[in-house]
Design brief:
Bound molecules: flavin-adenine dinucleotide
CATH architecture of the largest domain: 3-Layer(bba) Sandwich
CATH superfamily of the largest domain: FAD/NAD(P)-binding domain
Number of domains: 2
Distance between the termini: 23 Å
Helix content: 25-40%
């Protein structure tokens, strides 16, 4: 039995767990025990957050951001605390009881995601809101529902950072809150620069139709409660600044994993096979990984579609290595999908730019937001958001050979 521990149950971690199940089933004689650890384990898909942030303030935030296919996932919650890459175990903390539990592994997958980077710009921490969690989305929805004070009546919501998060939020806010002026600012001269110009131009057109004021070449130097100041001295009045610019790895990834190679943004550097450089049998994918982009040069962008595609390759590689076979490179020929409102999206799919409802279909497919037979493998205990240490286990009938046992939840429970 090969023990695989997956840290993080976001877009990448969940895809790894699901594809390990499938890959194990198609490999003769490979038995895997997969343990998936996540601090929240609510099936949250971050690309759905703009829908919540732009809607009316509501109490049932959790149920509105859970993706349909993942709502049946198990609710086991553990916060990653420590790792020993020599003796091959990680320590997790049960957030309800504070108990520390040890999880031994043969292969460790790190998929803990990223957080926003303010690069030390004055006022960002104090006055700006990020959009990483349902609580952030709820705060934005609340702040947009409260009328601006008289002194700032002509003010706007300024979204800083024109990646998929900023674009999607700006479009949703503009379309669903027509009374509020929405400004999208970024230091770059055009949208979605790593990709073909046609994609950025199509997104810019969609933003203009939604009523978003797009301000390229706007390097933010200060954020105040009532305005955003640019490097050239220009000021944008704002009742609310949402910061989506730049990402860096979550702090745990930066501080743990001694011996591993990190980027300056704290990401784990991997080889093209998604193995972390400097430590044995540790793999990484998604926003906390710096993965070479063989098809385009440089590193892969921090996008959900890349996280999913890396997860699929990583899972196959883990199964190959566990069966004595070779790992294969991740190339990065991946679709790009960006939401530009509640009912439409723009996608770069096999070299073609899709928009409107076809873009919307591509967005759902690209981010795995539609139920598939594979996604139904994750069991469901029906207690959304509840912490629990149960270990739901499913056994998959193997196509040939013995069955692959895939265990989701904590595998080994020994005090440290
Ligand atoms: C608002 C928004 C909109 C977006 N829109 C798009 C889009 O339209 N298209 C697109 O391609 N991409 C989009 N993205 C980017 C996409 O969401 C990310 O690239 C993707 O989520 C990365 O997946 P991940 O699994 O690496 O990280 P995440 O999905 O962030 O998952 C990380 C997981 O790790 C868990 N975790 C973190 N720390 C700990 C800990 N200490 N212990 C235990 N668990 C922990 C978290 O709970 C989380 O479940 C958007 C992002 C945002 C924020």
């Amino acid at each position: 039995m090969t023990r695989v521990v997956v840290l993080g149950g976001g877009i990448a971690g969940r895809s790894v767990a699901l594809h390990l199940a499938r890959a194990a089933r198609s490999q003769r004689g490979t038995r895997l025990e997969v343990t998936l650890l996540d601090a929240a384990m609510n099936g949250l898909a971050r690309p759905l957050l703009p829908q919540v942030a732009s809607g009316p303030p509501a109490s049932n935030i959790g149920s509105r951001v859970r993706r349909p296919a993942r709502a049946r996932a198990e609710q086991v919650r553990f916060v990653f605390a420590d790792v020993d890459t020599d003796d091959r175990f990680v320590v997790g903390v049960n957030p309800s009881t504070g108990a520390q539990l040890r999880f031994d592994y043969d292969h460790l997958v790190v998929a803990l995601g990223a957080t926003n980077e303010d690069t030390g710009i004055p006022g960002v921490r104090e006055h700006a809101v990020c959009l990483r969690t349902p609580a952030d989305a709820a705060e934005i929805a609340y702040r947009c529902s409260v009328p601006a004070p008289r002194a700032t009546r002509r003010t706007a919501v300024v979204v800083v950072g024109a990646g998929p998060a900023g674009i999607s939020l700006a479009a949703h806010l503009a379309l669903r809150n027509p009374g509020i002026e929405i400004v999208l600012a970024d230091r770059k001269p055009r949208l979605l620069t790593p990709f073909p110009r046609e994609l950025g131009d199509t997104v810019a057109g969609a933003l203009a139709r939604a009523g978003v004021s797009w301000r390229p070449d706007s390097l933010v130097s200060e954020v105040h409660p009532d305005r955003v100041v640019l490097r050239d001295g220009a000021e944008i009045p704002s009742a609310l600044c949402v910061w989506t610019a730049g990402t860096r790895s979550v702090p745990e990834v930066e501080t743990s994993f001694a011996g591993a190679e990190h980027t300056t943004g704290g990401r784990l550097v991997t080889d093209p096979m998604l193995r972390v450089r400097g430590v044995a049998d540790v793999w990484a994918c998604g926003d906390n990984a710096s993965v070479p982009w063989l098809d385009a040069g440089g590193d892969c962008p921090a996008l959900g579609t890349f996280a999913r595609a890396q997860a699929r390759r990583l899972a196959r590689n883990v199964v190959s290595v566990a069966s004595g076979d070779y790992a294969t490179s991740f190339r990065g020929d991946v679709p790009v999908v960006v939401s530009v409102g509640p009912a439409s999206a723009v996608a770069l799919w096999r070299g073609r730019v899709l928009r409107g409802w076809t873009g919307g279909v591509a967005w759902h497919l690209g981010l795995g937001l539609v139920p598939t037979p594979l996604s139904r493998l994750l069991p469901h205990d029906g207690n959304a958001g509840q912490s629990d240490v149960g270990t739901p286990t499913i056994t998959l009938p193997s196509a040939r050979g013995p069955s692959a046992s895939v265990e989701l939840g904590p595998a080994k429970r020994r005090g440290r």
